[in-house]
Amino acid sequence: MANNLSTFAIAEMLHVDPGSVANWIDQDLLKAHRTPGGHRRVAVEDLVVFLREHKMPVPAALDTVPIRVLIVDDETAITQLISRALRAAHPDYEVHEAHDGFRAGTLVATLKPDVVVLDLRMPGMDGYEVCRLIKSQDSTRHAEVVAMTAYPSPENQQQIIDCGARVCIAKPLDMAQLLHEVNISL
Questions:
Q1: Given its phi and psi angles, is residue 68 left (phi above 0), alpha (psi -120 to 50 degrees) or beta?
Q2: 3 state DSSP class of 167
Q3: Percent of the chain topping pLDDT 70
Q4: All domains of the chain, ordered by start, with CATH?
Q5: Separation between Cα atoms, residue 140 and residue 38, nearest integer Å
Q6: Strand, helix or coil for residue 170
């Protein structure tokens, strides 16, 4: 399959009118570029991000783009535990780890993960700042944030939800609950 798709190829693949695809592009919902001849083209990866963001099924022909999960916690043992659990449950997921907010910001920008499992309290850039950063960028705002904290006060939970997280779960982690939250984020 080509790396870039025309609006007609996308419309045929999704069983929608080509005008709908053009409207998504015109409304900046679907990232696209123009050829020198003025034709719209959409990168396969951008189409997959759009479909996942809008909870639309990804056609099998496009499903080669892996689901990316980034785990962010300053405790290496926690990130490794979550990584092992995710890889065991979903061997096809691409799982990455970061141990501080600054590294998380770099990985979010380059990997454009689908889900970020994010600890709230970290030295330097905390989880609130990382979440705000994720949700403030057009290229990453599609990422679902599953926050986690050892200090699950109503104030902390509300603050991270206000920053854009979908949910905040308490530590020590119930791994079944965490896996469930990651699954429903996709």
A1: beta
A2: strand
A3: 98
A4: 4-62 (1.10.1660.10), 68-185 (3.40.50.2300)
A5: 27
A6: strand
Tell whether pTM > 0.85.
no
- Per DSSP bridges, beta strands 68-72 and 94-98 are parallel
Beta bridge partners of 75: none
Tell me the C-alpha to C-alpha distance, in Å, between residue 4 and each of 20, 60, 73.
Answer: 18, 16, 36
At 123 the pLDDT is 86
- Cα-Cα end-to-end distance for the chain: 24
Question: Residue 8 half-sphere exposure, CB side, CA atoms within 13 Å?
Answer: 1
For residue 164, give the 3-state DSSP assignment: coil
Angle at 171 between CA 167 and CA 175, to 5 degrees: 75
DSSP-derived secondary structure for 56-125? PPPPGGGTTSPPEEEEE-S-HHHHHHHHHHHHHH-TTSEEEEESSHHHHHHHHHHH--SEEEEES--SSS
The mean pLDDT value of the chain amounts to 93
Query: 18 preceded by cis ω (within 30°)?
Result: no
Q: Is 180 helix (H, G, I), strand (E, B) or coil?
A: helix
Spatial distance between the Cα atoms of 97 and 11, rounded to a whole number of angstroms: 36
What is the number of other CB atoms lying within 10 angstroms of the CB of residue 17? 11
Q: In this structure, what are the phi and psi dihedrals at residue 40, rounded to the nearest 5 degrees?
A: -80, 140
